[in-house]
Amino acid sequence: MTRLLHVAASPRGAASESLALASTFLDVYADANPSVEIAHRDLWDGTLPAFGPPAAEAKMAVFAGREPSGESAAAWAAATAEFRRFDAADRYLFSVPMWNAGVPYVLKQLIDVISQPGLVFGFDPERGYSGLLRDKKAAVIYTSAVYGEGRGPAFGRDFQAPFFTDWLHWAGVSDVEEIHFRPNLATADADTARQAAHARARELAKTF
């Protein structure tokens, strides 16, 4: 059975533009694919494992071909469990608001927790990294309240989409679609841009 995982990186609930777009996408997707299982991962629910000294020690142990032990073994087990939950999906929908030109820290935390050798990536001393997330597809909703193309550096810069889309490709997910909602919310064009973004979400969901 195909499984879609919605990974929510916004903490704003009903006030979130990215979550509203995700809801539009998922409503249409569910209607078009009634047999697909849809799961949700709220990165703000407090269950995302930390990635501190024991986890870093575990990662380097695995890199060196050793088994983690003690606290490191427990940290590695938590990271592996989070990865298995993520890897169980065939398709992904990410709702990603812009925070300080980048992504919310909980999304970076998820990346740091699951990006482990033998799980998300392989490494060869001569050929470098290889992504291990195969035969998967992703749709990413990128939102920002001030930044937008052509507005100039005083309105911010985009380290959000380049960073996250690059991580997906690095991890092996090459089939990536994007939905952008980047109005200047201080102007009257917000509603027009919002309608266009929701229309894009509906159209993409029909064929995703």
Task: Note down, in words, how this protein is organized.
With 208 residues, the chain is of the alpha/beta class. The protein has one domain: Rossmann fold, CATH 3.40.50.360. It is 40% helix and 20% strand. The chain is built from 6 helices and 7 strands. It has helices at 17-32, 53-63, 71-87, 105-114, 161-171, 190-207; strands at 3-8, 37-42, 91-97, 121-124, 128-131, 137-143, 175-181. A 5-stranded parallel sheet has the order 2-1-3-6-7, sandwiched between helices. A two-stranded antiparallel sheet has the order 4-5. Helix 1 runs parallel beside helix 6 (190-207) and helix 2 crosses helix 3 (71-87).
Question: What is the fold-level CATH name, i.e. the topology?
Answer: Rossmann fold
CATH superfamily: Flavodoxin domain
How far is it from the N-terminal to the C-terminal residue, by CA? Answer: 15 Å
- Written as H for each helix and E for each strand, in order along the chain, the element string is EHEHHEHEEEHEH
Low-confidence stretches: none
Computed Rg:
18 Å
- Overall body shape: globular
Q: What is the helix tally?
A: 6
CATH-level-2 architecture: 3-Layer(aba) Sandwich
How much of the sequence lies in strands comes to 15-25%
Largest sheet: 5 strands, parallel
Average predicted confidence as pLDDT: 95
Structurally, how many domains make up the residues?
Answer: 1
Q: So what's the CATH class?
A: Alpha Beta
Helix content: 25-40%
The chain-level structural class is: alpha/beta
Strand order of the largest sheet: 2-1-3-6-7
Number of strands: 7
